[in-house]
Amino acid sequence: MLRKLYDWAFDVARHRHAPWALAGVSFAESSVFPIPPDALLIPMVLSQRRKWIFYASICLIASILGAYLGYFFGSFLYDSIGKPVLEFYGMQDAFQQIKDWNDKWGGWGILLAAVTPFPYKVITIFSGFTHISLVQFTIVSVIGRGLRFFVVAGLIYVFGEPIREFIEKRLGLMFTIAMVLLIGGFVIVKFLF
Fold it and tell me: What are the sequence ranges of the domains in the chain?
């Protein structure tokens, strides 16, 4: 089953509409969707390494546009959309802790969330809800998301084929590690907030 899923991801990555799928996932992940764009970015860069800057740029632009949607949800549709999204992630009671973090670190808190596996949609909704300056929000989001996507794509570009071979030989282990990191990230976020 894992092999079929892996092969499917590479088939999608090679499809002529793959950049649109990557943009869609990147956009949605910043506001509501739980799956990070890395799930498409990595196989796309592995399958066409020379396009790593193009793919990272797609992630960045779409992610920032999606972040604006999350900001809008927090500003204007918190009760109808923002709050249910936060409840889905178990983060509905974390606003005070996130506010304290933001009060302490300011834009650096948003930057940290933009770079890490922290559910970025939580920060985008929070930023809109608390009316953080849109200019500050944009600057730290561009820096943070840019770092995240360009570092991932750049590492895959530089170390591509050995990484691909390593993954293919240890597909079950890689899937287990990815799931542990994903679930562990949510558990850590829940524990911290």
Answer: 2-192
